[in-house]
Amino acid sequence: MPMSIFLNQDIKEEILSRLSVKSLLRFKCVSKSLNALISGPSFARLYLERASGTKILTSTPSGLKLLEYEACFGGEIRLDFPPKTQDRRVRIMGSCHGLVAVALESDNGFFIWNPLTRDYKELPDPCFPSPMEINKSLDNGFVLWSEDTNFNGFGYDSSTDDYKLFFSVQKSWWLPPIVNNFRSKTTASIFSLRKNSWRLIQSPPTYPLFFFHQNHSGCFVNGALNWLTGESRIGEILALDLKTERFSRLAVPNKENIKQIIMNMSVLDGKLCLRIYNNSDVDFELWVMEEYGVEQSWNKLLSIEDTGTYDFLHLPLCISQGKQVISINQEKELIRSGADDEESTIEKFRICHCFPEKFIFSSEYTHHCQAIVYAESPISPNFNIIEDEQQNQGRKRKR
After folding, report:
1. DSSP 8-state code for residue 203
2. 244: how many CB neighbours lie within 10 A of its CB?
3. Measured in Å, how far apart are the chain's first and last C-alpha atoms?
4. Peptide bond before 176: cis, by omega within 30 degrees of 0?
5. How many other CB atoms are found less than 10 A from the CB of residue 23?
6. What percent of the chain has pLDDT over 90?
7. What residues form DSSP beta bridges with 287?
């Protein structure tokens, strides 16, 4: 009679965390208990601590793709998402631990999705006031012209072991007579993946600044989502703590007697990164916040002299293992540059061939293109359902 070997969960996680994602996907089919373990957030975090490889996830009018960037750009994999729709335009709202939050351009449907496992979860609609409800709140019930602006973000709340999607809409409208008769209403909501529900939260104290092709999605760092705002002369950072679900402000680098414009913000090597244009001898600078929330920890990473050839709308994405800066420009090209001189372009790779001018200036985002860093993980967006099924199975055995 063969001897049964029982392993506790820590040992199982230790063994499984050393396997490839493809092997893990096969193990998920072995039993419900292994499926629950591999699909959960705790194992995903352990796996990501040991995983060394990441990819670039791109979204263009033709669909979503994953591609390699470490040695050179290439190895594109076309992703069959979203399901059951002919419109391939998808807006990426954020990525965390292998999960990606996306919105469909056609009908604003929300999904949380794992590109590697192809597992996804369609979210219920957030509870925002409809245009008719806004009309009823007005004195004369008539809107001459209106516009909606939104910003969003996706991240992880370690205090509750939960993934949260933030979405805010600012509805603006003009009433007759249009002169000096402008009104707006901002609504903010958070979706909890663990609870599978939206709930309204306090509206942000200010609205982010969207300059040219800046992403409306927040940068997730240190348990908080971060956006640039134009509240002060030199700008500020609006931060949303996903644990407390409260907003705060962070200071940007402030050099006296220098006019500066913060062009964009991203996450570089796990830290907030700002691209700053100023009128000093060196025209472009990259700054990183070494210690999150500490103003004095801003550190200048790069200085770039403007020679007239540099694309001032570069958005840094990551630093490769070879210490090269990977970024995306207004021409919809991925750029590989030397970390000691960002202007020394080593390689370019175009992710879309639509017209660049529409990419920058189109208010309808008909040619909206994005690129983010994606870390592979076996986590399932339906981990809460898998966990519940496992717990119910355990209760039945006890009976």
Report:
1. P
2. 12
3. 28
4. no
5. 11
6. 23
7. 274, 300
